[in-house]
Amino acid sequence: MSLLSPKEGWYDTKVSKDEKMWMVIALILCLMMFVWMILWHVYGKQNPSSTTYRTTTTEFAQLTEAYIKRNMIGMDNGIPVVRPEPNSEVFLMAEMWRWSPVLILVKDQSYNFHISSKDIVHGFSLQPVNMNFQVYPGYDYVLRFKPTELGEFKIVCNEFCGIGHHTMIGKVVVIENEEDLAKYGYDKMKKAPEAAVEEGAEKPLTESEKVILGEQLYNLKGCVACHKTDGSAVLAPAWNGLYGKSEKVKESGKEMEISVDDEYIRESIIEPQKKIAVGFEKAIMPVTPMNDKEIDQIIAYIKSLKN
Ligand SMILES: [Cu+2]
What we know:
This protein is α+β, with helices and mostly antiparallel strands. It has 7 helices and 15 strands.
């Protein structure tokens, strides 16, 4: 029972003319909106007509990581850079709090983007063109993507996703030719050799393939933070001209002279504190777990860096 009951017999009183008119107008509006809902989808470019697959966060993360490993050409501020072939399948993953990888696309070429999230809901928002798309975990959204403008585009997250939300900025770079790469500092990057990334492939790598992989590791594993290749040695010894050089090191306080060869580099990576380069006693090199193959590639890379 409500507080104020309507008058007895209200159900049988006639609806007034005004009221009927408003109901008809509302009905017409409803029908118009309903029709527009369909037309908007087709003409309004509001909803992406995309294919969507069910996936899991783990599966999508594995696919993206394998994709990045196969196609990356370098790093940009700690995020891998990928240069996909036109018309290929491209993986882009949202995670707390980054978009990975950075993509280099060619103007007027099409790509099939697969977008998903590694953790929670994020929003894909391409700026400044203001293209928006909600990214739910567990779904692989396939969007056909054809850049028609040159330049650098930012991907921001437009779904509040936690403390690092505002730092979640990705990048798409649209180029026309090879010269454009230099503008973004991507001209020196190289793609990993195919033989190196095929799972289980045991084809021996050539020296130059090892050098490319070594350079990728140098970026991926963070050696780049301390070791430079332009001769500057602020935090740690520079890597150019390092191989073959004779160097003063300290082992348990005793100074001695060694020559930088494969064995010394291997030891420096596995046990950084054993022999310490004189002049760098204060800085501490962290232990980075690496397997034999990776250490070989690092050695090849250091060897390739002449003065
Ligand atoms: Cu986010």
